[in-house]
């Protein structure tokens, strides 16, 4: 079969054809017969997920939101785009506010932690906090528990602030060596860095109006001192050490089984592993290129 494929690839028709119009009609009929529908696949890194669709309301709410599981399929075409996604338990989505807003001057804003609960749509736990008439979800820290009081402020004092776990301050207000998570990339933007379970960045040094943080990937970033950051580590620190234990558990997490992968067999239960070919001396390449074989086809 491979020999025939190479033969037809090198096959070239000459101009001495008996009836060229007949060939054109045959080619046109084949093109109309074999029609292909090309679907544009999503480009990686565009931030589009194919695990679930969250039905967000018009205004922010703390009520768990309904979701629609996609199982790795495109919501428009229905084609499988992400092959590793499939199944999974259907969870409610808790709308987390990735922004801590506080006063720019004066005493900090104090919030109380009402409850710390598990969210199946993310790796870390979420905490329900309340301040006056406002209720919202934030990412829970490692040792956060109900009843804790957390502070939020945008004021950068002359001396560093001695903050507790869960407090949100600008990076310029925290001392060197502090562990922070939920760090802003630009002042006033939503949190961008260290939002996964058990992650935290470390404040290394300061210069001019910048603060250098060390990410878990050992990469250093110099951010503006006005960028907000939450003190402490994200909850669920043992997430990366969790033992799945069974295929069914892996299925519940939303991972499609990969048991059909090709594996090399040994000589006892399948084909033999052949000895590699002998050594070949690779000399200088030949200057002459192999000439393609030309055939003449009379129709």
Task: Give structural attributes.
single chain; 299 residues; mainly beta; six-stranded antiparallel beta sheet; four-stranded antiparallel beta sheet; 14 strands
* First and last CA, distance: 24 Å
Largest sheet: 6 strands, antiparallel
Helix content: under 10%
What's the helix-strand series? HHEEEEEEEEEEEEEEH
Low-confidence stretches: 11-20
Radius of gyration: 31 Å
Per DSSP E runs of 2 or more residues, the count of β-strands stands at 14
Number of helices: 3
Q: How much beta, percentage-wise? A: 15-25%
Strand order of the largest sheet: 7-14-8-11-12-13
pLDDT average, as an integer? 81
Shape, principal axes of CA atoms: elongated
Task: Summarize the topology.
Elements lengths: L1 H8 L10 H14 L18 E3 L12 E3 L39 E9 L8 E6 L2 E6 L9 E4 L15 E3 L8 E3 L1 E2 L6 E3 L7 E7 L2 E5 L5 E5 L3 E4 L15 H6 L47
Antiparallel strand pairs: 1-2, 3-4, 3-6, 4-5, 7-14, 8-11, 8-14, 9-10, 11-12, 12-13
Verbal overview:
A hairpin with a 2-residue loop joins strand 11 (201-207) and strand 12 (210-214). The strands form four sheets. This protein has a six-stranded antiparallel beta sheet with strand order 7-14-8-11-12-13, with no helix packed on it. Strands 5-4-3-6 form a four-stranded antiparallel beta sheet, with no helix packed on it. It is mostly beta strands and 299 residues long. Helices cover 9% and strands 21% of the residues.
